Amino acid sequence: MQVTQSKPAPRAKQLHTSKPTSDSKPLYASQSTIPHLPVPTLSSTFSKYTETIQPHQSSSEHSKSKGLIDDFLKSDLSKTLQKRLEERASQKDSWLSEWWNEAAYMGYRGRIIPNVSYFYIHKRGLGGGQSQEGRAAELVRATVEFKKLVDRYVWLHRVFE
Fold it and tell me: Which residues, in sequence order, are CB contacts of 134 under 8 Å at separation 6+?
């Protein structure tokens, strides 16, 4: 007996332009459809930097810092570094993500709540979180529940795609 496959039903209008590859992680399934992170110029980076350090410096310190920055921006080294960053960007999906994940995200070992997410506060869960162990258990449980929701969303998205 020969089995024939029926034609798939027409799909609703898709939100993305390319289909994720089979090796994509579900949370990054549409990563290839968004524009790449642009490479900032050194002058724009240093402009923000000088604005940021200004309140922490005296007038003479700030003038000295601006002079050093201007000298650096005119140097061959700054041009070489900018070129290397642009080359990195042309070879990778994101010139920053690897550095961010390894150095800033995974490499940071400070206390997250007061040092990274200043506005981030956990409400006390059902158990009231009376001890550190209790609070830790509540956070782990909530994280697992969130992961289940993400997995379920991805599964439903695949089934009804």
Answer: 127, 128
